[in-house]
Amino acid sequence: MDLRVDNHFLTVLVFSPLIGVAFILFINGRREDLIRNVAFITSLGNLALSLAMLRFFRLDTPLMQFEVAVPWIRQFGISYHMGVDGVSLLLVFLTSLLTAIGILSSWRYITKRVKEYMIMMLLLETGMLGVFVSLDLFLFYLFWEAMLVPMYFLIGAWGGERRIYAAIKFFLYTMTGSVLMLVGIVVMYFIHLDQFGRASFDLYDFHRLSIPYRTEMWLFAAFAVAFAIKVPLFPFHTWLPDAHVEAPTAGSVILAGVLLKMGTYGFLRFAIPLFPTAAHAFAPLVCTLAVVSIIYGALVAMVQPDVKKLVAYSSVSHLGFVMLGLFAFNLQGIEGGIIQMINHGLSTGALFLIVGMLYERRHTRLIADFGGLAKPMPAFFVCFLIVTLSSIGLPGLNGFVGEFLILLGSFRANLYYTIPAAAGVILAAVYMLWMFQRVMYGRADRPENRALKDLSVREYAVLIPIIVLIFWIGVYSKPFLRTMDFTVRHLIIEVERKRGGPPPAMEAPAPVELAPSGGE
Amino acid sequence: MIDYAWLTPLIPLAGTVINGIFGRRLPKFVAGPLACLTVLCSFALSLMVFLELNAMDEGRRLAVRSVFTWIESGTIKVDFAVLIDPLSAVMLLIVTGVGFLIHVYSLGYMGHDEGYTRYFSYLNLFMFSMLLLVSAGSFLLMFVGWELVGLCSYLLIGFWYEKKSAADAGKKAFVVNRVGDFGFLLGMLALFGVFGTLDFEKVFAAVRHDSLVSPWFADHAVPVHEALAVATPLLGLPLITVICLSLFLGATGKSAQIPLYVWLPDAMEGPTPVSALIHAATMVTAGVYMVARCGALFTASPDAMLVVAYVGALTAIFAASIGLAQNDIKRVLAYSTVSQLGYMFLACGVGAFAAGIFHLATHAFFKALLFMCAGSVMHAMSGELDMKKMGALAKTMKITAVTMWVGALTIAGIPPLSGFFSKDEILWSAYSAHLNGSETGKILYALGAAAAVMTAFYMFRLIFLTFHGKSRAAPGVHPHESPPSMTVPLVVLAALSVVAGCVGVPELLGRFPLSRWFFDFLAPVTGGGHGSAPAAHAGSGAEGAVMLVSVCAAAAGILAAYWVYNARPALHDRIRERLGPVHRLVFNKYYVDEIYTFLIVEPGKWLSSRLLWRVFDAGVIDGVVNGAGYLAQGAGAVLRRFQTGVVLNYALFFVLGIIVMLYLIL
Amino acid sequence: MDSPVSPKDLALIFPQISIAVLAIVILLVDFLFGKREKGATALFAFAAAAVTGWFAAGLWDLNGAAFGGLIVVDNFSIFLCMVFLAGCGLTIMLSPRYLDLENAHTGEYYVLLLIAALGMMVMASAGNLLTVFLGIETLSIALYALAGINRGRAASGEAALKYLLLGAFASGFLLYGIALVYGATGTFDLAGVAGALARGAGAGPLLTVGVVLLIVGMGFKASVAPFHFWAPDVYQGAPTPATAFMATGAKAAAFAVFFRVFLTALPALRADWAPVVWTIAVVTMCVANLTALWQDNVKRMLAYSSVAHAGYLLIAVLAGVEWGGPSLLFYLASYTLMNIGAFGVVAAMAGKGRLNETLDGFRGMGYRSPFTAALMTWFMLSLAGIPPTAGFVAKLYVFAAGVRADLVPLVIIAVLNAVVSVYYYLRVVVTMYMREPETEAESAAGAGGGFTGALALTVCAAGVLALGLFPGPLLKIVQAALLAAF
Amino acid sequence: MNAVGLNSYLFLAFVLFLVGVMGVLTRRNALIIFMSVELMLNAVNLTLVAFARFLHSLDGQIFVFFVMTVAAAEVAVGLAIIIGIYRRSETVNVDEINLMKW
Amino acid sequence: MLETVAFYALAATAVGAALLMISRRNAVYSAVFLVICLCAVAGLYVMLNAQFLAAVQVIVYAGAIMVLFLFVIMLLRADSPAEGLETLSFQRIFGFVFTVILLFQVGAFMKTAAPGAPAGGMSQEALAASNTEMVGELLFTRYLYTFELVSILLLGAIVGAVVLAKRKL
Fold this sequence. Notes:
The complex is a heteropentamer.
Chain A: H1 9-25, H2 32-56, E1 65-73, E2 78-84, H3 86-105, H4 114-133, H5 137-146, H6 148-158, H7 163-196, H8 203-207, H9 213-230, H10 239-246, H11 249-274, H12 276-302, H13 307-326, H14 331-362, H15 378-392, H16 398-413, H17 415-440, H18 447-450, H19 457-475, H20 478-499
Antiparallel strand pairs in A: 1-2
Helix pairs in contact in A: 1-2, 1-4, 2-3, 2-4, 3-4, 3-11, 3-14, 3-19, 3-20, 4-5, 4-6, 4-11, 5-7, 6-7, 7-9, 7-10, 9-11, 9-12, 10-11, 10-13, 11-12, 11-13, 11-14, 12-13, 12-17, 13-14, 13-16, 13-17, 14-15, 14-16, 14-19, 14-20, 15-17, 15-19, 16-17, 16-19
Chain C: H1 7-12, H2 14-29, H3 38-58, E1 64-66, E2 71-73, H4 75-101, H5 107-124, H6 129-147, H7 154-185, H8 190-198, H9 205-222, H10 230-237, H11 240-265, H12 270-292, H13 298-319, H14 321-349, H15 359-362, H16 365-368, H17 370-384, H18 390-404, H19 408-434, H20 440-444, H21 450-469, H22 472-485
Antiparallel strand pairs in C: 1-2
Helix pairs in contact in C: 2-3, 2-5, 3-4, 3-5, 4-5, 4-11, 4-14, 4-21, 4-22, 5-6, 5-11, 6-7, 6-11, 7-9, 7-10, 8-11, 9-11, 9-12, 10-11, 10-13, 11-13, 11-14, 12-13, 12-19, 13-14, 13-18, 13-19, 14-17, 14-18, 14-21, 14-22, 17-19, 17-21, 18-19, 18-21
Chain E: H1 2-23, H2 27-47, H3 51-75, H4 89-112, H5 124-129, H6 131-140, H7 144-165
């Protein structure tokens, strides 16, 4: 590929947390507040960079922006190639936002080993950002795997009772999937080497490959398993409840808010465009699993006694929607999927924050230990309610926009998946409201519940940005959808072209024009 | 003013935001009146919109005003747009009008509640949602309002959240509504699939003009009627029927029809003004409004219409029969609401959309009135709901008693109160309808008439038990009349209940200015003024007979109630004993809740908890995952035993290795 | 007859001469230093390794055979010499503190290390089965002694005995294999063997048996299953720095020989030996990784890990010259850095009279000695093959080579094994960061390693990072090395 | 040329080798095991010499010379180790030397 | 004829001594039988025109090395028959079985295999005539490198043996 070095904006964006790490390394571990401040300021700086990226992102092109491409390991044709397009833009922003929020939320929650904790948070941020902007498969894989380590530490060192079990399960499970993907990447590398006589791990180059059908199926399977585990798609989901329950609040927030999106992002960025034929061939299976995830996750979430576990299973359900949208292979489905990724990051992230706030106050997460919190904590009640409703997919809040577009897209692709998926909407209301009711409503029988403090200023600061976004996306989603419009269109066209199928049915069904004489 | 119609919903929203954010810091005398004021503004605005619309030419009474684009993705573009036409103008008026009165009433009723501001912010939010629902310019935006009213319902039913029954009822309402919304959502998806748009006027225009559309299943453009006639897989029904039934499922959820009515009686856990506003006058009628709004679609599917009509008629009689045996004053009214909503659907089902809306309007007045009277009674009785513990309240609560009498007479259908006209319009439409042969209409009519008898009976049972006879109040309860903020709305509503009928008087009873105004005004939307059409061919004799039967039915019901509950108070115990199992069945609401619990809720819980979670998820799936780990560990445990520490054993394995290798290679 | 030695021959073996002579010099110089001053000997030994490395580097691109083909000095062997010497130097840096604590600090230790390094260098550049044999034996004898040098501990003697008995046993098989190959082809010369086979001479069951026995003999040194049983016991019993050298240098040398013998002398028989090696690779990976899951002794766990890595390395051997060769070299270089680092941390754990090799000693170390713990974590991640470490690039390269050679099933088995291995590597990390010490002794388990030790660990860690992020230069070197050599 | 063919020598050497192997596998005295290893080496030497004879090459004999030397060196180190072990644990039975296992 | 007789005699001696070596309970006897075996093999070396090696075998191997063995056996008092059979029975059974399997797996080839083409280029007679001389010459010309290498190897062995066996460091 021709190597263009547009600018190193993304380099700065991705690696800026490391600056904070460097500072923190030289701070005495006992000066905890200083460490917290440095970490938070670093993450805010990163957030500012993300906002700048949003500001300067051009909406009129499907191409990568802020692209940087520098040869890195020439022997393998590996380049340091990053870029942002409509698919990854919002995810990058979400990552920056949730990390900053996560750090803020850990202010009082984490009292042990603050230094190590903050270092891990910032390392994690770099890893996650890297995943979303990498355009070289080697680079991508590097971030993809490296990011596991800080997450592993966050769960394992600052988690709950069974944290070690959860951490290792998380690590091993996700790694099992990704090593198979690595083999897939290597196979593609050699296919490219044979077809073009040139070594490359570059995504652009891989797009040009012509892969034999059988190989393509295998490759897709290798990628898909890696991503499906991360998503997690039923039946690869069992690491998730464990990891979520044991992780510290910020860990859960980021796990749910960002890490799971890597799976769906991977499908969208790699698995589908690189192997369109296979993706279509596998679509029935993937969609079935997605629908099963939706229903199954909801049903199992319903009966969880532990709030965090409930939210974890609800993630399975929500991510099922995302997958359904992506595998509709049409504009609404995919855009809905992306928006739903963001939505899930916001609402589930906020739910975990809320559970964390409860845990900080009561040191329990069992639903049965709560009840009647609405009275002592009215502001908390409002926030919790909004977030719950967003998770349920109430129109006017963000969740609905995503779910509706997904259902719309999926309906056009295959309505048999849509009907049970839409039924999942009912179940979402059941389990979330039931939980909400048991936690917030009723009489505060326990004296410790009666004496709970309402939100502190810091907790407001944590929740309000998310709530603002929840409303914003819910009420006026157009600006968000517009960021991805060109990219997704382009992606669909490319996929269809590579499949050699009919020209993309982007414009069907045509909107009905009002008959000139009618109606008025 | 139509250009500013979109402000109608937003003004109460502002009230919500102010009360919601600053609520705890605002003094009570600001928060409540502020909420009322916002609704009053909306009412004024609605009135101006209505007048402006009324002033337009009959054919041009349609305006769509888009504010901003909400969602845009490919071909789907949904604007935040309001649609102003006669139907929505009427609805706006009803909602804001009744809403305002109930807000005022609440000032008194909720005066001492500690959740005062929270209450008003919810109530304002409800006004916003309901106004959004009725003024929305597209299915999707309507769906937004649709869901939001459900939310408000959830919040307000569970307003006294410390009561478990209240919280449960709220959740039940929301979930059952969601089941309906599922249908609405599917219908909407299918509509988009066919029409490529969700804007009301575009969809209906396409249906009306039979335009070319390219539905998702066809690869070329086809006329609408062909597209809608396509048989759906699995069901085999024409697409339009499936769409209409899906939408209707949504309506049954919101408007508490069979099979999804179960949430409404429980919803009485909420404050009484809420019951009046949401669960009687406005929200529950959203389903009727939706069916009427989609009249163009429904008329295209006779099968769906038939279903609507039957569901309506059956609900009417079914709910009325339950109402006969309830002792909880609000529950009686709740079942009455379900029953009356059934009438409205019956009207829609027979094509008399305008009649349905007419009944909707009168019902809004008299049912709100009845609820608020009940609230006044409760207020007086320190929250007592059981009619068995009331009696003789007419002495102490004059205004309440009188207004409630008016309401009861109205709902019973005594001319010339409004209820008589609206109910009669429906019954006559049913009687004269030609659905699938004329017998169907007669059956529907019979069901409706029977329900009318029951209505009169249970209403007057309520009146006699509450206001007359001997006082059975618990000691220490001192009934007293309510404050003016509560009684004034009662009087206003009573007046409206009395006079509202005059805009929809059957031609049989004469013509005078505005006598058919309601039907004429709605005709452009509901299609050709169905309400009056049958008169032309069925003959006035039959219409007169129907009318007479109605009046007789009402009178019979009232007299029976008087006989049993006032004249011979001992009689009803004997009747109850005589009826035995039947009474128990009715008293227990046909055990429908129990059946649902037994068939759906419990198996669902069991399935999720025992089977899916503990057995399948933890056992099978995670078992496989952890099993892989254990397998590895187990294998390791076995393998490490080979490492005995004795060097000779190592040599043995060494030689064994060589033997195997030689075996492999030779 | 001409002079048997030409100047060129001498030039080519100059590093060997250098290290041998310096070893003797150190043996003599050692007498000058008292029992507590052996650090000075260490310094000399380090200098010897460094100087030799410098000489070896000078031979880059000379690519010639010496002594009638007994010795082949090409970039392949020079690269490996550098790896051995680096390993040797790092081991020397790790040693003084450990040996002082264990009361086993003698000058002979360093001499033996240097002689072992010489043996490795001979192995790497052996062009003849005789030199192969002598190289292996030079290495082995030095290692037998090194394993048993900590006479204060019974385990050390036991390690030496086990190593010796099995080593001699394996030598017998190796020799028998060499004899059969000689019988079939009439020569010990690797190129000669290849030539004879190319002419179609000698192929037959005897030769096949000979090849199997060669695999056995060299597999023993490389510690592949089922000839690996010695490794855990010996690694555990030997003084930790010596173990580090055994696990890295000796293994690297064994693979150098393996690679050279099988790909220079016996490529013609690939169809015969490839399935066997394939099977061995699978068995090695699985057995080692699964057994390692249970190890509570970190050193022993690392021993199993090194066996597992031998399994991965066999993929490189199977993959052939073009891709397998460079990946092998790269892997060996990375592996040397990370494994010496890991063993170095274990060595650094030792306290007076306590080795603290078990996991219990690592409890809470992440907060007690954060620097060492961080390094250990880093090495564990690298051994597990998590980016951005050298271990990741190395594994990727080897697996890529495997894919290139159509060994995809084998590669998949390998990557799954790598996942299993993550479990036990992370166990160390878990213990260091996520478990609190339970006894006094555990919380006192120190981690220092002394100045040189810490320096060595830092160098290893930096190397692991550098190779992980910027492997380019080294990749260039290893690819060039193979181009010139084969 | 020769009354006794190469194969006789080879087979004899092989048998001797196997006797050595059997010695290693069945004895527990470290010294005897060690002697058995010497026997194996000796068998290899015989093979080499036989091949050298029939290949008309001296390389085999040279190799044997080195094998002998190496064997001597191994014996030196090995006996030193065995002595060390014996000093500590008073045994030369290898099955009693199993501190490290699993 | 004579050669055949000699071969079988020496072969029988060698194998017999070897079997006795591995089966004696007393290590001293084993050592003695090993010496006999080594001498018999030395005889075979002579028959194979390797006189030099035969001499080395007798002098160095049977002489020096085995004496060292005997010395150590005496030193460690390892001559006492301390071995019990039962503790290692499974090891013995398998050891025996495996050896027999190996015999059958490979033995057959030993009887049929043929060496590669003669590579030395020297006649047997020439080799036989001055074996010692030629071996010596090769050692110091072609194999000079290995010869020197072995000296380092021996140095290592000496250093190792000293370090391991010295009573005090």
